[in-house]
Predict the structure.
Amino acid sequence: MRILVVEDHADLAATVGDYLAARGHTVDFAYDGRSAYTTASEAQFDVIVLDRVMPAMDGATVCRKLRGEAGVTTPVLMLTALDTVTNRIEGLEAGADDYLVKPFAMAELEARLQALHRRASGSVVSRKLVVGDLEYDPQTREAHRAGQLVTLNPTTRKLLEFLMRQTHRVVSREELEHLLWGDDLPDGDVLRAHLHVLRAAVDRPFTHKLLHTVRGAGYRLADDGETAET
């Protein structure tokens, strides 16, 4: 396997890297959140070992941005000393596929990475995101609903992919604003305008809607059979 190890403690990174390399794997390294995001976005890996607490950008943010902005589907094992149930849930909700708490056994780390790689290798044909009759391919960045091409601009594409990855829950306005603009928010309710454009592209031509506004909570993309807005 080609593995990206993201760990800001150089000694631990070296130990993990040496063990995996001795087992026949190819290992690359990143030592902070920004370099991890850049490396994982620009190169192909079989699995990623991602530390949770890092300088520049924390692991959960890196994972969320990889899934939402970069469309990276590489399996991620989050490696961290944060061991509460809440910490684990946050990591998984950010897009991690597995979670291993420090200290850990190297043999278990490799076994988990192998398992993630096997699952990913066996599901290559199903990596398109699907909600009802809506499909989005992160590789081609094209969306189709009921076989029809959905026209998207870069902003609505980013929103659509993120919402499709989070179809199991309601996504808050704050999350979507952070996804698009980080901490530099624009004046006015620009998010509402972008969501209006997305809803028009995804729902308006069809008989039932997928993009739902949950009053006081946020937005959810899900197939629950509601009639589309006219």
Summary: The longest helix spans residues 106-121. Residues 204 and 230 are 6 Å apart (CA to CA). The chain has a mean pLDDT of 88.
